[in-house]
Specification:
single chain, Hypothetical Protein Yqey, Chain: A, domain1, Arc Repressor Mutant, subunit A, 7 helices, about 0% strand, globular
């Protein structure tokens, strides 16, 4: 069973159990899948599905931080609840130590020695660690290691 089938099954289960928050969040996700399929005229792979979920999580995080800045705790909580619903479908994220170790290997591979080489490291790291770590976390860790 692929990831998309799992999400569709969870959507059906949420509908049967009358879990409205989960149902609505998963409906938004499935509509995002359909939108990409129609726009790009392609069948989505699990990697595509993961990228879409990551994009949704990122936009929810951005919205939650804006709501927090505006002192709208109620709206912020809605965004955080949706993130909690989406997170189980994503690959397990690397811990900070695992991320640093992976980035040290990448830095050695590309021969980076200073901040001038950050572009090389980020290009390689983005490909190798896709889905396992957020780009922002990768960027911050690379800065620490090269800085």
């Amino acid at each position: 069973m692929d990831l998309r089938d799992t999400i569709n099954q969870d959507l059906k289960n949420a509908m049967k159990a009358k879990e409205t928050k989960k149902r609505d969040a998963l409906r938004l996700l499935t509509s995002a899948f359909k939108q990409i399929e129609v726009d790009e005229r392609k069948e989505l792979t699990d990697d595509d599905v993961i990228k879409i979920i990551q994009k949704q999580v990122k936009s929810r995080n951005d919205a939650a931080s804006q709501y927090k800045d505006a002192n709208r705790e109620d709206l912020m909580q809605i965004e955080l609840d949706e993130i909690a619903i989406y997170t189980p479908y994503l690959p397990v994220q690397l811990s900070d130590d695992e991320l640093a170790a992976s980035l040290k290997d990448i830095i050695l591979k590309v021969g980076a020695s200073s901040m001038k080489d950050m572009g090389k490291v980020m290009g390689s790291a983005s490909k190798e660690l896709a889905g396992k770590a957020d780009g922002k976390r990768i960027n911050e860790c690379v800065k620490k290691l090269l800085g």
